[in-house]
């Protein structure tokens, strides 16, 4: 495709690109920093960067560039903040594993589990967490994640595995 | 986690249901299942993509540069400096013309109106705005020959004199405010009261009191012709005028300075001028260095 370069500089294409990826980019940034406002700032800055460098970016790699930019911006700007993840207040949006079991004990138990889990997720390293949550929340395959992050699938799998072990250990220990 | 590969495959949805059964048999998946389930329930901030895109538009066109505060402050400082000095240069400093003691100046305003400034007087006006607004400030005494045109106003501490095009004299001294109209119609606002002066009329305010003054018939103020003339003016005002015309200090010794004086003195000869003031009032004077002392005739 010879006209790739021009397409991203075209405002119409850029808008499409933006609307298509802004949510997943925001999710990704959120997994990294655990702060929704900071996440959106990162995303906006990353898109701005893409717009400014539109002529230099291969349209096919724009998505990877977007995620890489977010990673870099994150590393540059946000120095270790306290990461906080939350569950939706509405139980409909976050059903328990066993939806048939409505006993108060069970619900309370699950509630506690969620609390532990959020703390455990916060304790993961940022690379482990992004892989784990991209897989869990966005339902992405390891292959896709690898492409987004510009690393090998093997690396993604390693990070995922490490994340699972840490989470399991933390939850079972407490 | 012995079956790491299988678990990874499971979470990647790459496991068939049979393989899943096998995995469940061989490993205790309870915790992991919960982790897998509840992690995917985590709330993710929803982005209003359209709104966010619109916000980006503003950032997009000009390249976003982070503001260096050092530069920002120095630029701001320079701006403030430039603006304030600009303000003083271009707005506050009006054109002003001044005369010293015993000095007189004649000059023309931007619209060719003529002004004769008597001794120790000052006029200031905004030359740039003159075309739009003929307005000036006067401290002291001046004679105006105004070209026809828009309202011409003279502001003094005691009142405002406005005309369209005429000849008039304004004397605004300490405790003394006097306007002579020589031609046309002059409107004088003093203490929020406006008086119209036709030619030959005088408005005089001494010590904040408006006085009745007889009409006059001269074509020009006498001081233009090197003479100061007075009609029923308190002596202290006459002395003040003497001091202005000749560089003098005049003191009085037992003399009532509220005495009224009618007459005139010349600006060209000090001796004659002093005599012209003292003799009609039955006074004498003596010179002590730069100071002149007035005293009652025969008292010494």
Automatic annotation (TrEMBL), chain A:
Domain RNA polymerase sigma-70 region, first and last residues per copy: 18-82
Pfam families membership: Sigma70_r2, Sigma70_r4_2
Q: Which residues form the RNA polymerase sigma factor 70 region 4 type domain?
A: 115-165
What GO molecular functions are on record for this protein?
DNA binding; sigma factor activity
Tell me which Gene3D superfamilies the record gives. 1.10.1740.10, Winged helix-like DNA-binding domain superfamily/Winged helix DNA-binding domain
* Top-rank taxon, per record: Bacteria
User: What's in the keyword line of the UniProt record?
Assistant: Sigma factor, Transcription, Transcription regulation
Which GO biological process annotations does it have? DNA-templated transcription initiation
Q: Does the keyword Transcription regulation apply?
A: yes
Instruction: Name the InterPro entries on file.
Output: RNA_pol_sigma-70-like, RNA_pol_sigma-70_dom, RNA_pol_sigma70_bacteroid, RNA_pol_sigma70_r2, RNA_pol_sigma70_r4_t2, RNA_pol_sigma_r2, RNA_pol_sigma_r3/r4-like, WH-like_DNA-bd_sf
Q: Which family does it belong to?
A: Belongs to the sigma-70 factor family. ECF subfamily.
- Quote the protein name from its UniProt record: RNA polymerase sigma-70 factor, ECF subfamily
Tell me what organism the protein belongs to: Flavobacterium segetis
From TrEMBL, chain B:
What GO terms are given for molecular function? sigma factor antagonist activity
* Domain FecR protein stretches: 97-186
Ranges annotated as spanning the membrane: 71-90
Quote any Pfam family the record assigns: FecR
What InterPro entries does its record include? FecR, FecR_C, Ferrdict_sens_TM
**Residue ranges of domain Protein FecR C-terminal in the record:** 230-293
Keyword annotations: Membrane, Transmembrane, Transmembrane helix
Superkingdom to which the source organism belongs: Bacteria
Please verify whether the record's keywords include Transmembrane: yes
Q: Per its UniProt record, what PANTHER family does this chain match?
A: PERIPLASMIC SIGNAL SENSOR AND SIGMA FACTOR ACTIVATOR FECR-RELATED, PROTEIN FECR
Q: What is this protein called?
A: FecR family protein
């Amino acid at each position: 495709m010879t006209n790739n370069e021009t397409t991203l500089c075209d405002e119409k294409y850029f808008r499409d690109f933006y609307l298509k990826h802004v949510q997943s980019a925001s999710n990704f940034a959120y997994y990294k920093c655990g702060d929704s406002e900071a996440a959106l700032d990162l995303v906006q800055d990353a898109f701005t960067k893409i717009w400014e460098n539109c002529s230099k970016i291969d349209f096919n790699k724009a998505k990877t560039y977007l995620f890489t930019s977010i990673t870099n911006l994150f590393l540059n700007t946000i120095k270790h903040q306290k990461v906080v993840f939350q569950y939706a207040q509405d139980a409909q949006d976050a059903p328990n594993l066993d939806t048939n079991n409505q006993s108060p004990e069970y619900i309370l138990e699950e509630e506690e589990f969620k609390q532990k889990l959020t703390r455990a997720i916060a304790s993961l390293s940022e690379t482990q967490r992004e892989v784990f949550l991209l897989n869990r929340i966005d339902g992405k395959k390891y292959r896709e994640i690898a492409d987004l992050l510009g690393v090998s699938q093997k690396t993604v799998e390693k990070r995922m595995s490490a994340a699972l072990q840490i989470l399991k250990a933390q939850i079972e220990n407490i | 986690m012995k079956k790491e590969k299988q678990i990874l495959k499971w979470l990647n949805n790459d496991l068939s249901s049979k393989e899943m059964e096998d995995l469940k048999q061989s490993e205790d998946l309870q915790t992991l299942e919960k982790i897998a389930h509840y992690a995917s329930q985590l709330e993710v901030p929803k982005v209003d993509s359209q709104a966010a895109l619109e916000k980006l538009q503003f950032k997009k066109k000009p390249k976003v540069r982070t503001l260096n505060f050092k530069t920002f402050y120095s630029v701001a400082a320079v701006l403030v400096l430039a603006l304030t000095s600009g303000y003083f240069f271009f707005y506050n400093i009006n054109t002003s013309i001044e005369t010293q003691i015993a000095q007189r100046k004649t000059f023309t305003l931007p619209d060719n109106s003529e002004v004769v400034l008597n001794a120790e007087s000052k006029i200031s006006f905004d030359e740039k705005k003159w075309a739009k607004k003929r307005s000036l400030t006067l401290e002291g005494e001046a004679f105006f020959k105004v070209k026809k045109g828009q309202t011409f106003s003279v502001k003094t501490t005691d009142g405002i004199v406005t005309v369209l095009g005429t000849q008039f004299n304004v004397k605004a001294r300490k405790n003394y405010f006097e306007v002579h109209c020589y031609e046309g119609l002059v409107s004088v606002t003093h203490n929020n009261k406006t008086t119209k002066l036709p030619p030959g009329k005088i408005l005089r305010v001494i010590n904040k009191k408006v006085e009745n003054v007889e009409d006059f018939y001269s074509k020009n103020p006498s001081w233009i012709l090197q003479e100061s003339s007075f009609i029923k003016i308190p002596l202290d005002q006459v002395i003040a005028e003497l001091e202005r015309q000749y560089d003098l200090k005049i003191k009085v010794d037992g003399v009532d300075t509220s005495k009224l004086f009618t007459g005139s003195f010349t600006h060209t000869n000090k001796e004659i001028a002093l005599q012209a003031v003292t003799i009609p009032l039955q006074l004498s004077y003596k010179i002590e260095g730069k100071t002149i002392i007035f005293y009652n005739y025969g008292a010494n």
